[in-house]
Design goal:
The chain is an alpha/beta fold. The chain has a single domain, classed as Rossmann fold. Helix content is 53%, strand content 13%. It has seven helices and five strands; from the N terminus they run βααβααβααββα. It has a five-stranded parallel sheet. Helix 1 runs parallel beside helix 3 and helix 5 packs across helix 6. The longest helix is centred in the middle third of the chain and has 14 residues.
Length: 137
Amino acid sequence: MNRILVDTNIVIDLLAKRANFYAEAAELFSLSDKNKIKLSISSLTFANTNYILSKLKSAREAREILRKFRVLVEIVTLDDKIIDLALGNDEFSDFEDGLQYYSALENSVNLILTRNKKDFKNSKVPVLTAKEYLSTL
C-alpha cells in the first residue's frame, strides 16, 4: 500500500470544515478510515492544526477533534536531519513546505497531497491535489 503524506491545508480543510474543500478532504479521510489507503501527516501538521483549531474553537474542543482524527493517520517523524535539510535548501521558499517535503522524502512516502501544488514544484515525490488523487481511484 502506498504511503501518502497529506499537507496541513487538507487536514485543516477537513477539521475546520472549510466549505469549498471539505467534501474532498472528507472523502479522502473516509478512505483512510476504511483502511483503503494509508495517510500520513508530519508532526508539524498536528501542531499547526491544533493552533488553527484553537483559534476557531476552545483549546479543549481542538484537542478532542485531534484525538478523534489521530486514528486516521500515521505520524511521520520530523527530526534533526529533516530540519537541517529544510534549512539548507533554497528550493522551498516556505520553510514549512520544506519540512513537509523532507519529512515525506526521509520517511519513504510515495505521494504528497496538497491544495497548493506550486509550493512543491521542485519535489522529487509526486504531488497531487486531493481532487486529482481521488479521480485516480
